[in-house]
Design brief:
mainly alpha; binds guanine; UraD-like
Amino acid sequence: MPTSNPLLLSPAPSKCSLEMLTHHYGDVYEHSPWVAEAAWQHGLTEAHDAPDALAELMGLMLQQASSEQQIRVIQAHPDLAGKAAMSGELTQDSTSEQAGAGLDQCSPEEFARFEYLNETYKEKFGFPFVIAVKGLNRHAILAAFEERLNNDAVTERQTAIEQIIQIARFRLVARAEQ
Ligand code: GUN
């Protein structure tokens, strides 16, 4: 019986210099390569050549960061179905994630709803609404958006950080699958 090969990242993170790791994996956290750098400083073993293990360690680095650093990472995300998405200014990962959830297909009413919620949310929390959109459609995203607007600021920061860790995990797994 053939055994299935575990998915591994290439280049192997455990074999990367700091510069190589940042070059290849620095962008899995949106505009925040310091997360990959912190993982390298922590020390990478062959176990981290598996996307889930590297995602776990990078997530820990973000969880252990100060609340100011965490907020800067959240702020590095573009609005969902926002103007930057419409004018093609997003990173490749953000573009495909937003399109994958059908956010580029919103009706004018849905775009207006996103615009209203994006502004209301940013006004309340001081950072944009971030959600791991893989597997969600725009109706589920809008429902989560309305619900999370009721959270307090500390809960919402922690929720956004967990979602960002999940986004990075999806990005690393997708790279290992290529
Ligand atoms: N979730 C997945 N991708 C994105 C993105 O580009 N922006 C926000 N706000 N959330 C996301």
